[in-house]
Amino acid sequence: MSTLPPGDAQYAIGVDFGTLSGRAVVVRVSDGTELGSAVFDYPHAVMDNTLAATGEKLPPEWALQVPSDYVDVLRNAVPEAVREAGIDPAQVIGIGTDFTACTMVPTTADGTPLNELPGFESRPHAYVKLWKHHAAQGQADRINALAAERKEEWLARYGGLISSEWEFAKGLQLLEEDPELYERMDHWVEAADWIIWQLTGQYTRNACTAGYKGIYQDGQYPSREFLGALNPDFAGFAEEKVEHTIGALGSSAGTLSAEAAAWTGLPEGIAVAVGNVDAHVAAPAAKATTPGQMVAIMGTSTCHVMNSDRLAEVPGMCGVVDGGIVDGLYGYEAGQSGVGDIFAWFVENQVPASDVEAASNAGVSVHEYLTAQAEREPVGGHGLIALDWHSGNRSVLVDHQLSGTVVGLTLSTKAHEVYRALLEATAFGARKIVETFNASGVPVTEFVAAGGLLRNRFLMQTYSDVLRMPISTIGSDQGPALGSAIHAAVAAGAYPDVRAASEAMGSVNRAAYTPDPDRADAYDLLYAEYEQLHDYFGRGSNQVMRRLKELRRAAYSKATVNA
């Protein structure tokens, strides 16, 4: 006989750990109704310029975080969300979490992050390496070259290229730049799994990050021989630092410990779902659990995930994993490293004071002001084309040495015109991904948008016009957190599997945007120009972007030596 509360009195908590903050949402298990939420901003945010503990300047392409900030989300956002929901915590049957990925925490055997050890707080490599830490590109290049030379079978499962964002490239960088710290590290842990460790007291890897970010395919990691050929001291990396028990998505990783119950105010012993990734966990929240439904989680970056009943090689995909999204189907992933981040960079650094003042006088944000101006103009009216590579290219080129550019600037170009060109560039990048999947025999039949950028209706319409597809939108403002709550409900036994829970608890607005034929025709012409620039700068015709980054690194190194 079940000891769970009756259906309408059951609640699940979903916690979404993003790039700058963590969000907790209280969800009714019977129908997915969201009753309360709370956000906690990470006190240390992202350390990409200086190390907070010492003020030391970090090299280019670094992005670090402090793991205690994640625990502070549990201490603050979870109890606040429960208070806002007005429920009895005793009615909560489970908690699930999701994380940015690949975000890595170096720990001791008991899960203590290395930056918390005395004397290590001044060592940059002791901290969390956030997903957008791209300083391991050199190591990624060597992994890719060696894997291609040796014809490693797993390479095709990642579109032919391993990213600098992932576990092995970042781990190799740690070894080669701070070997003492590497030796002190017992576990190289995805933050998605580290937070579950803090909740349960037990370390369990999740199938999602193991497959997509940890090169775990067909039950094994890259061989000792392969890793040793990269660096003799790296031979045991998979066996000694990475390998651990793997939990299926939607299963229970354990139960809430007494310590974590005290942090959160939740009942000790409730189910804790196996960890997950923010993008992948959002698919069930959008009722996208069948083949062909591509979910784009659009925020600072965009991650594209999709289920399929077939295994295929898709150039530049971030990975294909059996059961990587839901059991019984192959889960595909692609992505764009910069989307909302690009728009934010432009607003923070490139907008004239007159536009900022005009936005303030109108009582709107600068983003809203620029969007309203851009929306009035015809497609192509700005005479511009941009590449959306300000944070490198995740798909389909998988090269974080690439950088953004805008072509067509004149002395009469206005800020809102450049802003629109950047919006369009991200839509063109999404079209390149969709077309690559279609051409590889993994057809995209529905495009479902989720994430914070849904608020910009002009952006969504632009995507529909550029893709020449209807755009469905998730019905929740908190897609990843809702998805985590769905997994928590399954882990607690309220539903037999994620598909059933998705059907009951998920929410989607089908075909919320439809393409305008005239605008779509005009965008075809711009997209043709985008493709030419994409291949010219991205496929080896001109390596100027790589050379410029090399010059930047050399200049930084010289300045450091002379300081």
From TrEMBL:
Keywords: Arabinose catabolism, ATP-binding, Carbohydrate metabolism, Kinase, Nucleotide-binding, Transferase. Residues 11-283 form the Carbohydrate kinase FGGY N-terminal domain. Transmembrane segments: none annotated. GO terms for biological process: L-arabinose catabolic process to D-xylulose 5-phosphate. It catalyses: L-ribulose + ATP = L-ribulose 5-phosphate + ADP + H(+); D-ribulose + ATP = D-ribulose 5-phosphate + ADP + H(+). Pathway: Carbohydrate degradation; L-arabinose degradation via L-ribulose; D-xylulose 5-phosphate from L-arabinose (bacterial route): step 2/3. Its EC number is 2.7.1.16. GO terms for cellular component: cytoplasm. Residues 295-492 form the Carbohydrate kinase FGGY C-terminal domain. It is an enzyme of class 2 (transferase). PANTHER family: FGGY CARBOHYDRATE KINASE DOMAIN-CONTAINING PROTEIN (PTHR43435:SF4), RIBULOKINASE (PTHR43435). Belongs to the ribulokinase family. This is Ribulokinase. It comes from Arthrobacter pigmenti. The gene is araB.
